[in-house]
């Protein structure tokens, strides 16, 4: 048995192409194709059906892949265990986190960690999709909101909430609302992450208000909403960590700061392991310290 052939086969399946497998393995495409052919010849079966457009596993190929994927994962874990048992934590840590948090704060938090731990490398994939940590080979994810039932371990980091804000130019032109009722007279910038999102619930004590349509500008991209707000399109409801620096610097201003959206939990999640790799344990502690209290809380409006 040639373990390299098995590694090539699993990578072809996971990337769904010879080209993708070749890129990830650092091999010529012809070598990947040859190794898969050699494996099929040795086994005497067809593992992958090849067409001009895509690759598809045969039934035997699917069963073989499920076993091979576990073998490859075990070998990778064994190699990493050797690395982790060394006196100095080292190696690569792969993580994923929401795009907006990655842009605003995670870069500096990670830079501080790397300055302390010179033998650890971090690869951050900024994405708003729910990544399958085990399937895609990630060590850690930072996630917003309620977590679904899973085998992942969760560690609470902090909470975020939505606040209303606008540009000073807009407020100078249209006036600053002093009551929630006056908000109905203003243009709104509405973040609509899904077609079903027509409003966001705001609260102040026992009072409830729906911040929603009709909106002067609505988008499913929070960056576009932020830019429109900064350009004076209206009063927006945006997450506190996105606008805290702007409000502190005066490029945006809080509006009715006593009114906020519901608090949303921020958690670090990672696969359950009997022995947590030292590099991951160190980074989790660093992340928890950096976000408790969160840096944007320093700029939060007083209520």
What this model shows, in words?
The structure is a single chain. With 303 residues, the protein is α/β, with parallel strands linked by helices. It has helices at 3-15, 18-25, 29-43, 59-84, 99-116, 133-136, 168-174, 222-230, 240-249, 278-290, and strands at 48-50, 55-57, 91-97, 120-126, 140-144, 153-160, 162-166, 188-191, 199-204, 207-212, 217-219, 235-239, 253-254, 260-261, 264-270. The chain contains 10 helices and 15 strands. The strands form 4 sheets. It has a 5-stranded mixed beta sheet with strand order 4-3-5-15-6. Strands 11-8-12-7-13 form a 5-stranded mixed beta sheet. Strands 10-9-14 form a 3-stranded antiparallel beta sheet, with no helix packed on it.
Q: What topology emerges from the helices and strands here?
A:
Blueprint: H1 3-15, H2 18-25, H3 29-43, E1 48-50, E2 55-57, H4 59-84, E3 91-97, H5 99-116, E4 120-126, H6 133-136, E5 140-144, E6 153-160, E7 162-166, H7 168-174, E8 188-191, E9 199-204, E10 207-212, E11 217-219, H8 222-230, E12 235-239, H9 240-249, E13 253-254, E14 260-261, E15 264-270, H10 278-290
Parallel strand pairs: 3-4, 3-5, 8-11, 8-12
Antiparallel strand pairs: 1-2, 5-15, 6-15, 7-12, 7-13, 9-10, 9-14
């Amino acid at each position: 048995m040639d373990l390299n052939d098995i590694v090539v086969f699993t990578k072809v399946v996971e990337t769904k192409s010879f080209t993708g497998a070749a890129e990830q393995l650092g091999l010529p495409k012809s070598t990947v194709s040859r190794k898969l052919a050699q494996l099929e010849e040795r086994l005497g079966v067809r593992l992958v059906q090849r067409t001009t457009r895509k690759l598809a596993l045969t039934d035997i190929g699917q069963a073989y892949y499920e076993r091979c994927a576990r073998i490859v994962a075990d070998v990778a874990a064994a190699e990493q265990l050797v690395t982790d048992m060394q006196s100095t934590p080292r190696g690569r840590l792969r993580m994923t986190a929401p795009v907006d948090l990655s842009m605003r704060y995670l870069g500096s938090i990670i830079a501080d960690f790397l300055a302390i731990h010179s033998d650890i490398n971090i690869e951050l994939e900024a994405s708003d999709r729910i990544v399958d940590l085990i399937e895609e080979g990630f060590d850690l994810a930072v996630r917003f909101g309620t977590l679904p039932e899973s085998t992942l371990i969760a560690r609470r980091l902090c909470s975020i909430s939505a606040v209303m804000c606008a540009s000073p130019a807009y407020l100078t032109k249209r006036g600053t609302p002093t009551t929630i009722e006056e908000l109905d007279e203003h243009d709104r910038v509405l973040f609509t992450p899904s077609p079903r999102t027509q409003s966001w619930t705001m609260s102040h004590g026992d009072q409830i208000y729906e911040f929603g349509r009709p909106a002067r500008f609505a988008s499913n991209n929070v960056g576009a909403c932020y830019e429109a707000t900064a350009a004076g399109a209206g009063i927006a409801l945006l997450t506190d960590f996105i606008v805290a620096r702007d409000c502190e610097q005066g490029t945006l201003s809080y509006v009715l700061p006593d009114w906020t959206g519901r608090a949303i939990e921020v958690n670090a999640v990672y696969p359950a392991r009997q022995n947590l790799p030292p590099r991951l344990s160190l980074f989790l502690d660093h992340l928890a310290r950096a976000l408790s209290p969160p840096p944007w809380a320093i700029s939060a409006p007083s209520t």
